[in-house]
Design a protein that fits this description.
Blueprint (H helix, E strand, L loop, with lengths): L5 H14 L13 E6 L14 H16 L3 E3 L9 H10 L3 H18 L15 H15 L1 E4 L4 E4 H11 L17 H6 L2 H9 L4 E11 L4 E3 L4 E2 L2 E2 L7 E10 L5 H7 L7 H11 L1 E11 L5 E6 L10 E4 L6 H4 L5 H12 L3 H6 L6 E9 L6 E7 L10 E4 L5 H10 L4 E4 L14 E4 L8 H14 L3 E7 L4 E2 L12 E4 L2 E4 L32 E4 L2 E4 L8 H4 L2 H4 L12 H7 L4 E4 L7 H14 L12 E3 L3 E11 L4 E3 L9 E6 L4 E2 L2 E2 L1 H7 L7 E3 L8 E5 L11 H8 L1 H10 L7 E2 L5 H14 L16 H19 L3 H17 L5 H11 L4 H10 L23 E8 L2 E9 L4 H10 L1 H7 L6 E5 L3 E5 L1
Parallel strand pairs: 1-2, 1-24, 12-14, 16-17, 24-25, 26-33, 27-31, 34-37
Antiparallel strand pairs: 3-4, 5-6, 5-9, 7-8, 9-19, 10-11, 10-13, 10-18, 12-15, 13-14, 20-21, 22-23, 26-27, 26-28, 26-32, 29-30, 34-35, 36-37
The chain binds ligand ANZ.
Amino acid sequence: MGTYNFQEIEKKWQKVWEGNRLFEASIDRSKPKFYALDMFPYPSGAGLHVGHPLGYIASDIISRYKRLKGFNVLHPMGYDSFGLPAEQYAIQTGQHPAITTEQNIRRYTEQLKNIGFAFDWSKEVRTSDPAYYRWTQWIFMQLFDSYYDLKTNKATSIQSLIATFKKEGNNEVMAVCDEDTPHFTAGDWDSLSENEKQGILLKYRLAFLSETTVNWCPALGTVLSNDEVKDGFSERGGHPVERKKMMQWSMRITAYAERLLHGLENLDWSEPIKEMQRNWIGKSIGAEMVFQVKDQDLKIKVFTTRIDTIYGVTYLALAPESDLVNPLITDGQKSTVQQYVEVAKNRSERDRMSDVKTISGVFTGSYAINPFNGEEIPIWVADYVLAGYGTGAVMAVPGHDERDYNFAKHFGLEIRQVIAGSMEHGSFPGKDGTIINSGFISNLPMKEAMEKAIEFLEKNKIGKGKIQYRMRDAIFTRQRYWGEPLPVYFKEGLPYLIHENDLPLVLPEVDKYLPTADGEPPLGRAKNWTYTTDEGDFPLEKSTMPGWAGSSWYFFRYMDPNNETKFVDPEKAKYWGAVDLYIGGAEHATGHLLYSRFWTKFLYDIGAVPIEEPFQKMINQGMIQGRSNFVYRIKGTNTFVSHGLKDEYDTSSMHVDVNMVYNDQLNLAQFKAWRPDLENVEFILENDKYLCGAEVEKMSKSRYNVVNPDDIIERYGADTLRLYEMFLGPLEQFKPWNTNGIDGVFKFLKKLWRLFHDNNDKVSISDAPATQEELKALHKAIKKTEEDLANYSFNTSVSSFMICVNELTALKCNKKAVLEPLVIILSPFAPHIAEELWSILGHQSSILESNFPNFEEGHLVESNHEYPISINGRMRAKLPLPLGLGREEIEKFAMADATVQKWLEGKTPKKVIVVPGKIVNIVI
Ligand code: ANZ
């Protein structure tokens, strides 16, 4: 058999697994199911670096482990293959994104296969494949054809809404719809034109077209969602983003706000991620009320969470974008206000919220009337009021709200505190200002004061209690090429669905992947981008779906990837159910993880799937950071000085490719060959070596610290890579990649190999029964592995394997009775070597078909005890003795011990106290 030839072994078993289709999962009702899922990757041109597989290794270990424990495991992999990078590349090179995507996928798949994952490749999905996206389009169609019924609290067919309109208009309808939806009777509905009816229906549909303020990114030529914008710049590429009004498709995710909030309670996710979702949804309980503008036929509606402070209102403030601003400006204020509004509007929401230092605003010149006490209060425009939240207007209470307080201080507006129960509740204490009586709600506790105030609003028809969510409806279109076309055509400016039989609506060819000359999306370049009906040809929608469309339901497609009549067979969806373990990055907390929960709830409502929550348990792996290496050039020279000597010179540091550094020592020849300008450099060495400096940074090409798993596999094998990635530290932690420790892991596998071989590299395995000590070493490891895997603590498992193999090596154990269970427990971590050793042990079938060994407590019972021996109260020696010896025997052994003899100096002890199983005390 020879030495541990990992290259041969790994290729061999990968072939066997694939050839025998050992990872293909199908329904097997005799076993419990386990669905392990990784967030599928976007296949980027750079290929995988060692950070990418971290999560996949963890899910692979769990998948293989669950299988050994008798579960029927589904562990698929696929590609989120629509997206911007392929399209940007297409714009630069003219290469069709489908071609680059295909190439990248091939590379990814090959890299993943090299790592020996137990993926069921027969279930692979690709979101850019028409056979896949026909179902993304189909789901869009169902959303378009549904509205959210608040009576039954679920999505319902738009047909039943139309039936209600025909019968009784919409006065009794309780549904989620646009704010400006008019009231109408059955007669009104009947008299509407077809176009008018369609216009009304759009106000109810879960996928709808409307004019919205969007994040427009001119450099990318597209709209971005809130979670794709970070601090006013696009997440991808870092281009500036501005606010703009456009006709856009949106998804009415706000209809699901409450269910998305509640659903979190039973999910086994980390608290920070749940909290991020809660904050994103941002539920506020409060009231909405209107203020009449003095001497004008205008009303201002505000949203407040503190209606109990209504007597403390000293001004109203409007968002600069508000349509109300213009009519409110009095002649004297005109130019000041308009100038101000222009500047304020273009700052992003986030900037305006986070910017606490600059307070800016302007008085409109108009006043409103507080209906509770008839007071006239000035109306201002203020930067800190956001157009997109609540009503875009606030009743300002500087005595109780910090932002209002700062604003009032700045502009010299009145500050007052109300005597109401609310004062007890720790609201912001205005540091100054008068204290006034809050009318009929004074002296009531906050909650009651609010209830009383809301009663007043409702009685006088000037407002009502209101629950507000911070979450907005999700913009659904992108003005880009490389995404799913929307299955929609336009007739007289109104959207209609294409016929289901015409799915998939395949992405058309275009001459360039750029917007048209008149600013239309790239699909505007396609020839005959029209839909033919009996009534003629109609233009198709030119925007495409956002990146999150395809990833919002892929976990269902894996269950049944080739189904041509349904997106998933309900029986299969029922069998596999929710994902039992989902592993992926925390960066998707408010994007993908909210959208997929939303779509799953919708699909549940329409009876298409049997589960409401897609991901029962989730772990977010930490990022593997790069460990950059540096060399130090003496300024103005061609000489590089080793790290330890660099302080003696005036140097500048330079990143060096980590792949030419080994244990921080630079390979000089490789360095010289790296770039032409380095060909003739000289070195100042320490101890004949050039040592590099090191620093932890993000893993990226520009820092030359990217480590390719292929290189590690070439050098050490996939099993070492897998073990090493787990060994780096707890899965959730961010940690640097540091190849310095990899040798230790590699040596461990060689040591394991040695247990099965004699000194001549011949297989040597004994059938003799195992000793107690050998069994103890083994069962300690079994116990630890089970406990660790229950806690997803992979790094500690690896340590316990190392301890076990060290102990067995010391015991020279080559017994089948021990080695067989050992390779089974190791097999989820290092599957190739385990499979090889399994066959060396004489097995014909794969180790995948074996069972995880049972832990037997009995083997862990200690057989020895190390007795501390103290002489005159001081611990002087330690003596291991078998448990179960009597007092006299223990004393005899203790007295005979060489160290004890030395301390006794020939004297006879006055007293020897023996506590069996504990301690020996000698008094001289
Ligand atoms: C009066 C008041 C008094 C308020 C008080 C708060 C404290 P959350 O909890 O986040 O929902 N507000 C309403 N719409 C706003 C907008 N478009 N832009 C900025 N601020 C807005 O916040 C709701 C509170 O934020 C509302 O309650 C309103 O100020 C303000 F002692 O009304 B409050």
